[in-house]
Design goal:
globular, Dna Ligase, domain 1, 11 helices, alpha+beta, 5-stranded parallel sheet, 382 residues, 4 domains, 22 strands, Rossmann fold, D-amino Acid Aminotransferase, Chain A, domain 1, 9-stranded antiparallel sheet
Length: 382
């Protein structure tokens, strides 16, 4: 590890994903630097090296990157023009700027799936709200459907479900894609990893349960309830996606399984992901440790599940905005197998991600019982 310790890794973004990446790096003796606006973000509150700047700004990214050996991201909304120039200047960029650009635009994602025979739900492009309304009137689009803004959607933002005419007021007036509503049986995620030599490996799939209104993961179950054939198919699709994109790094692939058993790709993210938080305690290697292995040119590690786990997102409670107060924290931390991760966010607001809890147990039923207690007990108020 003596050579690895000399590598300077620049991370664009300082949110909770960066925070957990930094925590994983402390066991590897790596030098991580974060580019973020100030020191009040989850990662910049705890990291050793922080540069004040905007990861969307060309000059800030260039100035930051020139002193790094490798650059990576913890959020997609970064300046890819600067990353391309830094690559020309000899810097290694993981994931590749072209991959980031593709994933920044949900429309380009969908086109990629079609061109590469990746199963996904039928979709239409729209330029604005008016074009969607006209398409409904002429019968080109039928209720129910989902509208997704092509760019800048994050943590449930930029997505609206239109079940009937009464919901049209929630349409976004931006370039977007319109997807036919899938009759969903399960929502599954697979994180696939590809190292600098092209070796590819997947974490076992996990199952997600979403908040009914916030469009955020409320519970995550590991292992998922899919059968071996479905597991094999989803891992195969995830590997095809990352290989056909020519991507290095880790890629979260979100799937729908319909009531008819059809497997469809929903969305992808080229970075650590909410669907992999439980790997810190539940798997032999976490998604963060694996990304660091890839960045450092180290071999991929065993990603098998150690024991069943459930991840519970800690969201800001409805009706509270202001300085965060964690109610029920002592009761939760006293439970066997509970691991609380708070994101050092001082201000709470409804449905803001404030942290997560991972519950590991000898079986999933025991973990579910404890997770339900956590959901009812741990509240973020003011």
């Amino acid at each position: 590890m003596s050579e690895v310790s000399k590598i300077k890794i620049g991370v664009l973004g300082g949110g909770q994903l960066g925070m957990m990446l930094f925590e994983a790096s402390t066991d590897m003796n790596l030098e991580l630097h974060f580019l973020e606006k100030n020191d009040q973000y989850p990662a910049t509150k705890i990291c050793t090296h922080h540069t004040a700047g905007d990861f969307k700004n060309y000059d800030d990214v260039m100035a930051f990157g020139k002193d790094m050996d490798i650059l990576t991201i913890e959020i997609e909304a970064v300046n890819t023009a600067a990353l391309k120039q830094l690559r020309e200047d000899g810097k290694k960029i993981i994931p590749e700027p072209e991959v980031i650009e593709l994933i920044q635009d949900k429309g380009l994602q969908k086109e990629f799936y079609v061109l590469n025979d990746i199963p996904t739900s039928p979709f239409y492009f729209s330029d604005d709200r008016e074009s969607i309304v006209k398409a409904i009137e002429d019968g080109s689009i039928a209720y129910p459907f989902v509208q997704k803004a092509r760019k800048d959607g994050y943590d449930g933002q930029g997505v609206t479900v239109i079940r009937g005419a009464d919901d049209l007021e929630t349409l976004f007036d931006v370039p977007s894609i319109v997807e036919e509503m899938v009759d969903i049986d399960k929502e599954i995620a697979v994180i696939v990893c590809r190292d600098q030599e092209g070796n590819t490996q997947c974490f076992p799939s996990v199952e997600m349960s979403f908040h009914p209104t916030a469009n955020l993961v409320e519970f995550l179950f590991s292992p998922s309830s899919v059968n071996p054939e479905q597991e094999k198919e989803m891992q195969s699709i995830a590997k095809v996606i990352i290989q056909n994109m020519g991507m290095t790094g880790i890629l979260a692939v979100e799937f729908f399984i319909s009531q008819d058993g059809e497997i469809l790709v929903n969305e992808i993210a080229p970075r650590p992901h909410n669907s992999g938080h439980q790997t810190i305690e539940g798997n032999h290697c976490s998604q963060y440790k694996q990304l660091l292995n890839i960045l450092a040119g180290e071999p991929l590690e065993n990603m098998d599940i150690i024991q069943p786990a459930i991840m519970v997102n800690i969201l800001g409670d409805k009706g509270y905005t202001g300085p965060a107060v964690y109610q029920g924290l002592e009761e939760v931390t006293a439970i066997e197998g509970v691991h609380v991760h708070l994101y050092h966010k001082e201000e709470t607001r409804p449905n803001r991600k404030m942290g997560h809890v991972t519950v590991v147990a000898i079986d999933l039923d025991t973990a579910i019982e404890r997770a339900n207690f956590i959901k009812e007990t741990l509240k973020v108020i003011t």
